[in-house]
Amino acid sequence: MFSQIGETIFEHEVVAKTSDFNMGLEVEMHRADSQGRISSDPTPAGISLNSPWVTKDFTETMTEVVTPAASNSLDAIHYLYSIQNALRAALAPGEVLWPLSMPPAFADANKIELAQTTPEKHAYLERVLENMGRVNKGLPCGAHISLSIDDHVIDIIWEQNSGRFASKAALKNHLYLLLAQGFVRYRWVLTYLFGASPVAEAGFFDPEDDQPTGPIRCLRQSHYGFDMRFKGDYSTIQNYVERIEAGVANGEIIDEAQFHGAIRLKTSGDLTDMEKNGVSYIELRMLDLDPTSTTGVKLDTLRLLRIMASYFIMTPGMQTKDVSVTIQRANEINEEVATENPTTHSQYEIAGKNFLNRLFQFANQIQLGPEYLETLETMMDRFDNPANTISGQLVAHIENGSLLPYMTKRAAHYQDGALMAMRTFNGFADMETPLSAEDLKNNLFRGSYEPSGLVE
Predict the structure, then answer these.
(1) All domains of the chain, ordered by start, with CATH?
(2) Over the stretch 428-437, which tens digit does the pLDDT of each residue have?
């Protein structure tokens, strides 16, 4: 099962490292009122323009919480939970964070304000809106997961395989390309398991819009949802860069940041230097918010992503000549899965279970531990029982085509919990200079939780 690189990792007993990638989380949520409508309250002081941890995204009501890069998923979740508590504590009375990816209800899209930030950023958002065509396409929110391979793992692979690669940057590019290709290839599995946008609320669709006639698994990851018309090329690093550059040149996208693909490759320098400098991390952008969790993403989800990431770098990948066709087909399958009825068995159920079974064999082989095996059992059950998927659960709460009654209760429940939290940090609004990651850790936890460490 292992590739040559996988054998190196396994033989040098660094499997635990590969299953515990460094991780950072970015979670977007709209501010809403207690009736489930997009909030009309002004932005709270706790959302600072110069804070790297709590900020605004596309519109004035779209908040974004960003965690520092942590050395394990549990730490990342604790950072996310604590920062979100601070944000919730700063909201106006009656205001909540909307726990669904699809936005709260609104009457007039033209009255939705783009984020008021710096003049330069606001001008940029206006250009993005002009390119996008309608503000609606930029409203769906999500959870973005940044993964980087532990430096110790890369060093060991380099020591044993340096003859295969021109430089360490070339090795990193190879590993991150394996991750990107693997996650795009099996994105549809994640859409099935974690899709959580079966319906849209009033205002998102106009009457003349192409729209589903009933609940589907995942509006956001389908052609109905987020603006993902521009497709990336993951066959090589050079092709990835050139595809984005061509998209900017011909006006398909404004710049690299408007590339909303399921996977982004990130480097420490300019995009044009990615091949030379090496990829630094990847950003997974295919996850809906999980409304069954106060944070919008669960630890089980992060564990599955880690198993998948380990599997992709330790087992043989695709040949370059097969990548484009395979990923094109994977995108087609994702659309089919996203638009299925959430309560029915997927037409790709057997393929999904076969993939999870392969992950189960892999996890046993490298002895990841019972918590990972339990995660895989939970995901297998979702293929056996579609009603146990997130969208399958949500369908039971739809009333007259809407989730507003149920979601307003969930949002209020999460808000009440945050306001009951002791030692909530409320200093974002008063910081003259942005908090460093170390200062953030000290202010957030104050001895109540001790993260293992931060990644530089």
Answers:
(1) 4-180+225-327+403-434 (3.30.590.20)
(2) 665 566 677 7
